[in-house]
């Protein structure tokens, strides 16, 4: 059974980063905001390339785990590659206890957990947030890092990946909806950090 290989991730990320630099000439702002230890990385999600783009933007000094829809793992070879790179499947159609346990343990082990609070790609500002990221941060008492990714990422579009300042949700609160909405607000506020042309 394929498992996460941190050394494989460490080797692969520079090449993934180079490919994105060639494709969309992306720039990273605020990487210094990524804290030490376990945390929950929460970007917006408008494109299929967002997960590897965020991981490449973080660099290979962090161990990154990514929650990804289970359908991506249907093809064995591609599924194994995703697992080696740190992804693990989640069944979005039900309360996937195994995926939740994996995510909680990943954060508690000091990994960066990459999860998209809007739950699906082709999401836009104003779309409702799912509660998974908020719940995981509250249960692990880990900081949340909001991330804004440029929504148009065609060839040489000079995309941006912007890491906001980490914040801690109210761990005494069970209002995951309110925390989720706060995450989304913080993500899209980062748009103002894009340099003016």
> Mind telling me the CATH superfamily name?
Glycerol-3-phosphate (1)-acyltransferase
- Share of residues in helices: 25-40%
Q: Mean of the pLDDT scores?
A: 92
Name the strands of the widest sheet in spatial order: 1-7-6-2-5-3-4
Q: At CATH's second level, what is the architecture?
A: 3-Layer(aba) Sandwich
What is the CATH T-level topology? Answer: Glycerol-3-phosphate (1)-acyltransferase
Top CATH class: Alpha Beta
| SSE ordering | HEEHEHEHEHEEH
Which sheet architecture does the biggest sheet show?
7 strands, mixed
Features:
197 residues; alpha/beta; Glycerol-3-phosphate (1)-acyltransferase; 7-stranded mixed sheet; 6 helices; 37% helix; globular
Architecture overview:
The termini are far apart. The radius of gyration is 16 Å and the shape is globular. The protein has 197 residues and is of the alpha/beta class. The protein has six helices and seven strands, in the order αββαβαβαβαββα. The protein has a single domain (6-193), classed as Glycerol-3-phosphate (1)-acyltransferase, CATH 3.40.1130. Helix content is 37%, strand content 16%. It has a seven-stranded mixed beta sheet with strand order 1-7-6-2-5-3-4, with helices on both faces.
């Amino acid at each position: 059974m394929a498992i996460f290989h941190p050394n494989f991730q460490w080797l692969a990320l520079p090449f993934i980063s180079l490919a994105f630099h060639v494709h969309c000439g992306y720039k990273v702002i605020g990487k210094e905001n990524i804290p030490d230890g376990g945390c929950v990385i929460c970007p917006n999600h408008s494109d299929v390339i967002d997960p590897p783009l965020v991981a490449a933007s973080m660099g290979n000094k962090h161990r990154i785990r990514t929650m990804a829809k289970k359908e991506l793992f249907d093809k064995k070879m591609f599924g194994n590659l995703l697992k080696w790179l740190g992804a693990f499947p989640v069944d979005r159609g039900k309360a996937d206890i195994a995926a939740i346990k994996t995510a909680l343990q990943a954060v508690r082990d000091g990994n960066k957990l990459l999860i998209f609070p809007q739950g699906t790609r082709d999401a836009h500002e104003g779309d409702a947030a799912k509660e998974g990221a908020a719940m995981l941060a509250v249960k692990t008492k880990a900081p949340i890092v909001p991330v804004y990714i440029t929504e148009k990422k065609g060839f040489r579009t000079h995309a941006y990946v912007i890491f906001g300042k980490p914040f801690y949700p109210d761990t005494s609160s069970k209002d995951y909806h309110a925390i989720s909405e706060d995450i989304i607000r913080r993500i899209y506020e980062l748009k103002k950090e894009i340099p003016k042309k």
